[in-house]
Amino acid sequence: PKAPPPPAPTEAEKAAMLAALPAPYNAGDLENGRRAFARCRSCHTITPGGPNMAGPNLYGVFGRQAGALDKYSYSHALRSAGFTWDADKLDHWLENPRTFLPGNKMTFAGLRDATDRRDVIAFLKVETGYKTTGE
Ligand code: HEC
User: Fold this and answer.
1) For position 9, what pLDDT does the model report?
2) Ligand 1 centre from 44 Cα, in Å?
């Protein structure tokens, strides 16, 4: 049986997760991050146990190996990338997915605005960084 989804983090827990990020991400504007993430929602869910769509579910992506979800069919490039996602890796990926990791299949032009990237990374940390039950 599937474990029940964890409770959503409280505002205080969200603030602590934000503060734990390195600069400049710890100064991220979560509301702007939520707006910027609208550009990702057609391909990604972020809730625990959320479905894979064109792209993989992003819950728990911080600290996870790139290309590591069993149930998602990654490109060879991402599956074999051999790094762990952190804020800086996400920043480079989101600035220009194609040049960051040639051969990947994320057809997204990139977020050129550094503030939008900072904010979307902060938003992702707060929305996907909390622990699932039993982890
Ligand atoms: C048009 C669909 C699409 C859009 C829009 C999109 N992505 Fe993706 N994303 C993908 C696909 C497809 C992959 C898998 C790439 C591969 O396997 O090479 C992916 C992979 C990823 C990964 C790697 C996940 C892992 O498990 O290693 C992250 C992180 C990510 N996307 C974040 C984002 C964010 C944040 C945005 C918005 C700023 C975004 N993506 C926009 C399709 C998309």
Assistant:
1) 82
2) 7
CA of 62 to the centre of ligand 1 (A): 14
3-state SS assignment for residue 74: coil
Q: Which CATH superfamily is domain 11-128 in?
A: Cytochrome c-like domain (1.10.760.10)
Cα 3 to middle of ligand 1, angstroms: 26
Cβ pair 21, 125 in contact under 8 A: yes
Residue 41 gets which letter from DSSP?
A: T
Write the pLDDT tens digit of every residue in 29-47.
999 999 999 999 999 999 9
Name every protein residue with a CB atom under 6 angstroms from any ligand 1 atom: 39-40, 42-44, 54-56, 58, 61, 66-69, 74-75, 77-78, 85, 90, 94, 104-108, 111, 120
Cβ atoms 48, 6 nearer than 8 A = yes
pLDDT, average across residues 109-131: 93
